[in-house]
């Protein structure tokens, strides 16, 4: 029989388990405080629990589902990336990005990805499985423990690592609620962002959720013809379906949508394409993040040079579209999702340090 994994249990489920053991229900709140607020890595740390309960928890439940396999720090010290092994042998990645006042985590929701975007290292490896809510939250707690040692805390979480979060909707949202819960990790929903390639039914579903989580859309092209190549799911949910869904999302939530646009040299980075993008987004409450492509060994495209990046930005800003060129972090440690996994499995960790 598989042991229950503590981070997968809701407080109700944890209370039910403890009740079957003859323990008072309030112990569930004590355990959750240790897990989500004190970031305990071992039940032995839970000093206000009876020793008999700590021993039983250690024997009959699981706490640590992630085993670090490779951990790399960027040369500037601002980015830390970890490749984790799961109990079934699958592997996922998470990244800590340090800014002056923010400590942002980029976490995974799936092992692999079924979206098959050809420029993305995770898309190149294919889909393996969904992560449970506990496996998603465990990535946050791993870095929270590291930051505790520095007197710092997690300030932002982006669901932009391996996988398509909205294709694992139920578990992703369970993780969001655990992280947002004042009795859980207690991070405000507005400090979390979910990224999607554009799963229209899930975007419409997300617009009805009470948590004020941010939405980012990986757009990458201003036309269906080009987006069909760069983001294959566009064939199922073309721009004629995606953009009305986003307009409805904004009307329902009054929240700004962020558009992620990876700039690829001579593919989607011309000033004419910037004009097409401005036309597509005109009138939307939105912001565009321009990201020079973080190259992967199997991608057919390379990142745009600076002069084309800034010309693209200037064209959007001239059209009144708020735009930022995202500071690229962790290029020297393969911080793009899936890159460290692929480098590790190709037996060539030198790839993890290629620019």
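^ Assign residues to that structure.
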């Amino acid at each position: 029989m598989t042991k229950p994994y503590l981070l997968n249990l809701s407080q109700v489920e944890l209370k039910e388990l403890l009740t079957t053991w003859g323990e008072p229900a309030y112990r569930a709140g004590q355990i959750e405080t240790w897990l989500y607020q004190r970031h305990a890595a071992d039940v032995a740390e839970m000093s206000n629990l009876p020793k008999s309960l700590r021993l039983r928890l250690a024997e009959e439940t699981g706490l640590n589902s992630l085993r670090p396999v490779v951990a790399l720090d960027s040369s500037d010290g601002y980015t830390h990336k970890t490749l984790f092994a799961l109990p079934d042998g699958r592997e996922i990645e998470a990244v800590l990005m340090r800014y002056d006042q923010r400590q942002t985590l980029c976490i995974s929701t799936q092992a692999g990805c079924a979206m098959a975007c050809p420029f993305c290292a995770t898309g190149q490896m294919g889909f393996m499985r969904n992560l449970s809510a506990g496996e998603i939250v465990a990535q946050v707690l791993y870095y929270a423990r590291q930051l505790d040692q520095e007197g710092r805390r997690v300030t932002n979480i982006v669901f932009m690592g391996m996988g398509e979060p909205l294709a694992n909707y139920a578990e992703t949202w369970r993780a969001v609620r655990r992280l947002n819960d004042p009795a859980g990790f207690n991070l405000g929903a507005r400090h979390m962002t979910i990224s999607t390639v554009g799963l229209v039914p899930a975007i419409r579903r997300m617009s009805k959720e009470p948590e004020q989580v941010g939405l980012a859309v990986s757009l990458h092209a201003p036309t269906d013809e080009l987006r069909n190549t760069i983001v294959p799911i566009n064939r199922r949910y073309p721009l004629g379906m995606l953009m009305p869904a986003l307009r409805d999302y904004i009307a329902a939530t009054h929240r700004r949508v962020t558009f992620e646009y990876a700039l690829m040299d001579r593919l989607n980075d011309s000033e004419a394409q910037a004009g097409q993008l401005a036309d597509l987004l005109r009138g939307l409450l939105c912001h565009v993040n321009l990201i020079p492509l973080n190259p992967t060994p199997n991608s057919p495209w390379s990142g745009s040079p600076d002069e084309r990046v800034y010309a693209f930005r200037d064209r959007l800003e001239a059209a009144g579209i708020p735009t930022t060129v995202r500071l690229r972090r962790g290029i020297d440690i393969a911080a793009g999702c899936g890159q460290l996994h692929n480098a590790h499995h190709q037996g060539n960790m030198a790839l993890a340090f290629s620019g």
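The CA atoms of residues 29 and 311 lie 54 Å apart.
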